[in-house]
Amino acid sequence: MPLVALTGGIASGKSTIARRLAEHGATIVDADAIVRHVQRPGSPVLDALAAEFGADIIESDGALNRAALGARVFGDSDAITRLNAIVHPAVRVESQRRIGEALATDPDGVVVYDVPLLVEARADDPWELIVVAHAPADVRVRRLVDIRGLTEPDARARIASQVSDEERLAIADAVIDTSGDLADTIARTDELWGTLAERIRTRAGR
Fold it and tell me: Which residues bind ATP (predicted)?
């Protein structure tokens, strides 16, 4: 069963690629969904976050106030390190469980791990292919402003807080350029799917 990692910076079109790969039959394991799962009300991770960053990051209904937590750690590298030390191990365990479940269900299927923080946390995992969704920073800024309603300074700050494009591209086995329109991104994703087995064989033979 091919195990493919899909990553990309904020507003890179990664989710569009994941949805298209799912339409082709891939099983998508979504790291963001796993983060929300391990931070659910009453979870050990949420308790640890409250102990580390303050009980006021928890809403009255017991759910995490993500905006409050984000404001507390944004731009603070030490705080982000402490946050990751709490969240990443739980995400790793749950992602491995879901990947194992997918393997048991369809041993011949393709599993795609959709993960924003691949460079930061999972680059050395045994992926058979690493795919990077890529668009220039200015394109991503425009998307964040036009689609998500951020101000341009906020959009640029969000992009700057992540690893650089160069670091992401350095680990890529395949790059999907998403700077065009939706149809172009879909076509490039279809091309990747059609050549997936060949790309994996090429990588294995390096």
Answer: 11-16
* The domain boundary residue, chosen from 107, 139, 167: 107
Number of domains in the chain: 2
Residue 205 and residue 121 share a domain: yes
Q: What is the pTM of this model?
A: 0.92
Region at 77 (left for phi over 0; alpha for psi -120 to 50; beta for the rest): alpha
Q: Which of 151, 172, 135, 112 is nearest to 11 (CA)?
A: 135
* Predicted confidence band of residue 187 (pLDDT cuts 50, 70, 90): very high
Is 14 part of any known ligand binding site? yes
Would you put residue 5 in left (φ > 0), alpha (ψ -120 to 50) or beta? beta
Q: Does the CA dihedral 66-71-75-77 come out positive or negative?
A: negative
Is 77 part of any known ligand binding site?
no
- 12 annotated ligand binder: yes
Tokens of 11: 């507003």
Secondary structure letter of residue 164 according to DSSP = P
Does 115 share its domain with 201? Answer: yes
